[in-house]
Amino acid sequence: MVRAICLGAALLCVAGLAGCAGADGRLSKTEYEQKVQSVYAEVQQAFVRTNVTDPGELAERVEDAQDELRDAADELEGVQPPEDVEAENAQIAGGFRAYAEDLDRLRNAAEQGDERTIADFNSRIGRRESVGQITEAAESIKFKGYDIGLIAEE
Q: Helix or strand or coil: residue 5?
């Protein structure tokens, strides 16, 4: 039986809400928090939709999740975050892109109906470098006093 991709403590991504930037073009702390929460909500929804039992359907849903991860990375790269989280913002965007690439293995396994590889992939999500990159950056942002929602909680 095919299982959903469990992102667990790993993949809490970021979605997109347009905010008014300050005079220097940077988002305020509040605007940035909202941006990350919004971007992640979109990514999270894409992964919720991977909770299917048919491998063929899983392959399609994983591809959608990959697209959402890339869109989220674009969103984050397209903003000017507050200076104190600039590096972490770039790290999350890079992690999203890397995780989207990691998902090629899962999508290919689903296309081939390879349930063993699907299960193996799902069991190792939290150990992926890309997921660690996202988690580390989100925790750092949280430590700096930002409320970026679930991405820093899971």
A: coil
